[in-house]
Amino acid sequence: MQIREGPARRTAPSAAGALRSPMSAMMFAMFATMASFYVAGRLWQDAQNRVYLIKELDRRTGQGQSAISVDDTLKVVACRQQGKRLASLEMELAAAKHEGFVGKYTPETNGTHSRKKPLIVIGIMSSFGRKNYRDAVRKSWLPTGSMLKKLEEEKGIVVRFVVGRSANRGDTFDREIDDENRSTKDFLILDDHIESDEELPKKTKSFFANAAETFDAAFYAKVNDDIYINVDTLSAMLETHWDKPRVYIGCMKSGEVFSDSTHKWYEPDWWKFGDGKSYFRHASGEMFVISRAVAQFISINRSVLRTYAHDDVSVGSWMIGLAVKHVNEAKLCCSSWPSGAMCSAL
Question: Which residues span the membrane (predicted)?
């Protein structure tokens, strides 16, 4: 006799599943809660570690300032070491000069030939249509031909007429200068400058930059093309400044700033010079001298150096913010021709 299974037998698995389901949910909930506490704890610990590290870095770098990178730190240390080395060398050079161990020029070797470092590069500011002025200079104090070469080799004095290029490159003005230079070989032609009376400050800046890159001289001078120079007196004066690595020499003055646009010496930036309307102290534009370190500074920073209406004021403005020795040399007051002067107006 068969016994049929009733509905009660079929309900047993459902009852067991019902018993297991709440237990699994509770275990899962407990596990999730513990995991949440663990993750939250780790995040909190990491946050505390970051806060501690930031405070420790701030404390060690001082006054709550951000720490610099290792690379930046190494660069700062290297720069400081180079600065100390440079200062030491400058002191040794000055001491050697004082003891008489330094000659007039520093000998250098170029291949198998020995040459002397130029004492000074003199740039005579000239322009198109001023050949008569250049010829007057050549006939008065600037030698030509082999004598010009002798002046460079024996006295270390390099002299060049400084001229830019025409706005119409290759025109008659450019060709005349090129032809004259082929004959005299006494030009420094600024290919990166457009010749213009209004752009003389930029021309002077370009001259110092190009001269510093072309000639490894101790000094560089800017001179107008209507000035006479006594090169022997100039050489003797410069020898007294060998121990000054950064020097600015000239007939120092500080003239009036003119705000009238019709005035010959009008300054468009007159409002920058205060209520007194007087320029800061600067060397007269007829002639002034700077040392190699200053010329190199101009060469490196030419793109950001501000120019004013006049080249002497422009150069003087660059010297204001530098650790440069200003030397007021009366013998460079060319217009007054004092006793023992090195220059005068032709």
Answer: none
